[in-house]
């Protein structure tokens, strides 16, 4: 790594895998981080760019990534970067925290973007009952609109679920879930994982599964069959152990993957192979 403040690169994987959820725009400073957002500020201060992020990831076996939108600007930016880079795919959506901005005009533009070839997901959408930046009513209305966009465009639905597990499952069942549903940065326990398995929903595990105090996430990972597992960074946020407090990036995926493999009692390369196959079932042919 060029900057001493950034985490060292882990041992490369022998089998390629991908990052199902990151925010390239925040990492590269396309979107200036707020003063309280320490990891994003550190990522931006490192002067990284999309090409460098992809090269550093590729060097450890992380050959593709999905950059995820959270408002109109990040969705438009992600769709454009996905058109420009072979190994980048995009998700487009209005985040539940921004649900008040999900006007009919904005949602129409999200749907237009979702129809693009290089855009493979409608997300992140869902419900956030931890931050009440948007009312629960606005969040549910926006979530339902995104569910319909995912169904009409045939793209995967990528869900942000923060302290709203039961409500998210209720809305999905009530609205009728799209063919492919992914719980991003899966945060439920083993019981929730069983409900996801029953419904055929994918669980995308992130850095917190490596945290000492997150035994419930490892219990959930034990329940999740490899065929329904994905791995992600949510970079620049949620770096895996031992890099908490530092900026996350796709090249740190091997740390989270190895933790998951240990939990599953699997060889890391075998789990990487299964997750990579899941990628094409979730996001379509690469
Ligand atoms: Zn995210």
List the ligand species.
Answer: zinc ion
CATH fold-level assignment: TIM Barrel
CATH class: Alpha Beta
Our measurement of the CA-to-CA distance between the termini, rounded to an integer number of angstroms, reads 28 Å
Largest sheet: 8 strands, parallel
Going by CATH, the homologous superfamily would be Metal-dependent hydrolases
* Overall pLDDT score: 96
Can you count the helices?
A: 11
- Which architecture does the CATH hierarchy give at level 2? Alpha-Beta Barrel
The Rg value, from CA coordinates, equals 17 Å
Quick overview of this protein structure:
With 286 residues, the chain is of the alpha/beta class.
Walk me through the structure.
There is one protein chain. This protein has a single domain, classed as Alpha-Beta Barrel (TIM Barrel), CATH 3.20.20.140. The longest helix is centred in the middle third of the chain and has 18 residues, at 136-153. It has helices spanning 24-28, 38-45, 50-58, 72-84, 104-114, 136-153, 165-175, 190-199, 215-223, 253-264, 268-283; strands spanning 17-22, 62-68, 88-92, 119-128, 156-162, 181-183, 202-205, 229-231. It has 11 helices and 8 strands. The protein is of the alpha/beta class. Helix 6 links the parallel strand 4 and strand 5. The model has no long low-confidence stretch (mean pLDDT 96). Strands 1-2-3-4-5-6-7-8 form an 8-stranded parallel sheet. The chain is globular and about 45 Å long. Bound molecules: zinc ion. Zinc ion binds at residues 21, 23, 68, 124, 234. Residues 21, 23, 68, 124, 234 line the site of zinc ion.
């Amino acid at each position: 790594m060029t900057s001493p403040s950034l985490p060292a690169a882990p041992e490369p994987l022998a089998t390629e895998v991908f990052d199902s959820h990151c925010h390239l725009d925040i990492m590269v400073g396309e979107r200036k981080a707020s003063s309280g957002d320490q990891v994003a500020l550190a990522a931006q201060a490192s002067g990284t760019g999309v090409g460098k992020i992809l090269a550093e990831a590729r060097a450890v076996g992380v050959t593709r990534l999905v950059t995820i939108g959270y408002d109109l600007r990040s969705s438009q930016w992600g769709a454009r970067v996905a058109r420009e880079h072979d190994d980048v795919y995009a998700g487009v959506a209005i985040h539940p925290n921004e649900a008040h901005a999900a006007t009919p005009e904005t949602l129409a533009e999200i749907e237009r973007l979702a129809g693009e070839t290089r855009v493979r997901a409608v997300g992140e959408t869902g419900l956030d009952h931890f931050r009440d930046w948007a009312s629960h009513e606005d969040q549910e209305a926006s979530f339902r609109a995104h569910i319909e966009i995912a169904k009409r465009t045939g793209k995967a639905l990528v869900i942000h679920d923060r302290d709203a597990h039961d409500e998210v499952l209720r809305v999905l069942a009530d609205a009728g879930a799209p063919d492919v549903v992914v719980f991003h940065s899966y945060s439920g326990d083993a019981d929730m994982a069983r409900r996801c398995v029953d419904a055929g929903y994918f669980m995308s595990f992130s850095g917190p599964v490596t945290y000492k105090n997150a035994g419930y996430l490892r219990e959930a990972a034990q329940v999740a069959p490899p065929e329904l597992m994905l791995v992600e960074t949510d970079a620049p946020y949620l770096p895996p152990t031992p890099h908490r407090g530092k900026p996350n990036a796709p090249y740190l995926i091997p740390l989270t993957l190895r933790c998951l493999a240990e939990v599953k009692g699997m060889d890391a390369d075998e789990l990487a192979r299964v997750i990579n196959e899941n990628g094409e079932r979730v996001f379509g042919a690469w």
